[in-house]
Amino acid sequence: MQVTVSVTNSSRLVLAFSNQHQVLTDACVLLCGSIGSLVLRDLGYTGPLVRRPRLVAREGVRPRGTTRARVERVSTVGTPGSRKHHVVVVGGGFGGLQAVSKLRRTPVDVTLVDRRNFHLFQPLTYQVATGALSPGEIAYPLRAIFKRARNVSVLLAEVADFDLDARELDLRSVSAVPAPERLGYDTLIVAGGSRYSYFGHEEWRLHAAEVKSLESALAVRSRLLAAFEAAEGEPNTEARDAWLTFVVVGAGPTGVEMAGQIAELARDTLRRDFRTIDPRRARILLVEAADRVLTSFPPTLSAKAERSLRRLGVTVLTGRTVIGIDAAGVTLERRDGGAERIDSRAVVWAAGVTASGLAGRLAELTGAERDRAGRITVEADLTLPGHPEVFAIGDMIRVRDAGGVPVVLPGVAPVAMQQGRYAASVVRARLRGREYGAFRYRDKGNLATIGRAAAVADIKGIRLSGFPAWVTWLLVHLWYLIGFQNRLLVLIRWSFSFATHGRGARLITDASAPSEQRDG
Percentage of residues in the chain with pLDDT exceeding 70? Predict the structure, then answer.
């Protein structure tokens, strides 16, 4: 039961029933049962499943059976105009989303700041890049997620700088939407994330797109599909072969999944769509500097993943380092020092990552250490040195262990989610005057899919491959996808694609992609 008390100069209070909308919602939950409750929660309903009628205090008589001390205690927490503890969360990714979700029933005011108005399910951006899914199926509006959380506000803005002494953020507007210049906080949780690193060669970014953001995934989709269109109209054999050569740099989970999807697109989905070319003749090359793919997995699973890739027609090139990328192709260096040139007009980058620029700025202000990837070193409770009110979570950090040694955790969603929940629990513990322990990551395993009914999984010592691993991968991703509607749509899309071998989102939305590549 939630009680809202309005205190005036008069000491008399009266309680009245209100909020018929809430009563209707409760009736719907009772009638629909567990299935109805699940739908309502996915639509944003965050309250308990059964509520008593809401009580609103008005000037008049104090309610029967309510002591004066009880009313005064509640009014201190909920009185309009009383200042609550203000928590600002920067970033609406997995970590930031979990932090806000765990604070929405806490007596604090929460402001979520993000330069996008949606949460992006990054593990599936590569499926947007290959036409398997549409953008709206892996993204969900932030305001819709927290529309029932009255203590949560969403602010569309970008953080320009930090004033840690004044406990304020400097903001700048995005998408021509006005934003306040300054935003104060009592507790700050920074979840800036990471971006792909081109190892000091930012000029490669123009010719080798990545799939970490929604915009870049759409650009890659247009580039891949445009390559097939260009090959269809190219009379020169060598030039046509260059258009039909696809290079994926980096054989981690994203690179392996991307190469597998391109192979299925060429050999399965598009095989009857063209008249001049045979898409099944396309070359898909997966380049990796290490001696095997999926180095974060056990060697046995890496070997199985490589065999699955080869069955799809992917050529795996391990022990090769990229030393040059331009509009006409990629230059590789072998372990023996020799160079190898590959003519290609479609290169996808899925190699190393670097921390958000926010990590570098926080390191400058606090004197915290950084590693070569730009990750800032935080204390065991995820706070910055000398600033216990500032948390940093996700891909942009490394955490000191009990011995004070910085530890780099995997750059995967479960790490950020656990850190977001932990930061929220520390905020609650501090407000209640309770003690809390250091952050501990619980490894839930690794998953990677290669293609239809082909995947590998390493879950707490249980190693799966093939169809069982693929089903596990499907269920895990559906479970973590935000929004009941998105889960249903993705499930339908995957089922349809599995039955028909089709991809319904094969759209070229960047009309300039083919001309830019031809100019090279």
Answer: 82
What the block records as the tokens of 374 is 């730009």
Closest alpha carbon to 286 in 266, 264, 313: 313
Residue 85 bridge partners (DSSP): 108
Return all residues near 101 (Cβ < 8 A) that are at least 6 apart.
Answer: 424
What tokens does 295 get?
A: 């180095």
Please identify, among 406, 431, 456, the residue that sits at the C-terminal boundary of a domain.
Answer: 431
Give the end of a domain, one of 55, 78, 101: 78
Residue 437 domain-assigned (yes or no)? no
Q: What is the value of pTM for the model shown?
A: 0.81
The model's pLDDT over 294-303, given as tens digits with 9 standing for 90+, comes to 999 999 999 9
In the block, residue with structure tokens 């000191």? 400
pLDDT digits (tens, 9 = 90+) for 183-204: 999 999 999 999 999 999 999 9
Closest CA to 211 of 191, 231, 235, 195: 195
Strands 283-288 and 314-318: parallel
DSSP one-letter code for 177: B
Of 137, 210, 257, 264, which one is the catalytic site residue? 257
Query: Distance between CA 136 and CA 486 in Å, rounded?
Result: 8
DSSP three-state, residue 87: strand
519 burial type by CB count under 10 A (0-12 exposed, 13-18 middle, 19+ buried): exposed
Is there a contact between 327 and 520 (Cβ–Cβ < 8 Å)? Answer: yes
| Site of tokens 């202000």 | 365
DSSP H/E element including 325:
strand 321-326
Q: Are 504 and 493 in contact (CB under 8 A)?
A: yes
With residue 24 as reference, give the H or E element that holds it: helix 20-42
Spatial neighbors of 512 by CB under 8 A, at least 6 apart, are none
Please work out, in degrees rounded to the nearest 5, the angle formed at the alpha carbon of residue 45 by the alpha carbons of 30 and 49.
Answer: 30
Taking alpha carbons only, the member of 187, 182, 181 closest to residue 86 is: 187
Q: Is 257 a catalytic residue?
A: yes
Instruction: Find tokens 């020169």 and name the residue.
Output: 236
CA distances from 210 to 153, 215, 216, 317, 505 (A): 31, 10, 6, 19, 19
Instruction: Determine the Cα–Cα distance for residues 114 and 93; give it in Å rounded to an integer.
Output: 9
Label residue 495 exposed, middle or buried (CB < 10 Å: 0-12, 13-18, 19+).
exposed
Residues 174 and 234 in one domain: no
For residue 430, what is the DSSP state? H
Which structural domain, as residue segments, surrounds residue 234?
209-351+445-519
Helix and strand counts by DSSP (H, E) for the chain: 14, 30
Q: What gap in Å lies between CA 462 and CA 432, rounded to an integer? A: 40
Phi and psi dihedrals of 437, rounded to 5? Answer: -95, 180
> What's residue 42's pLDDT?
45
- pLDDT, residue 510, reads 65
Domain count, the chain: 3
What angle (nearest 5°) sits at the alpha carbon of residue 398, between those of residues 395 and 403?
A: 155
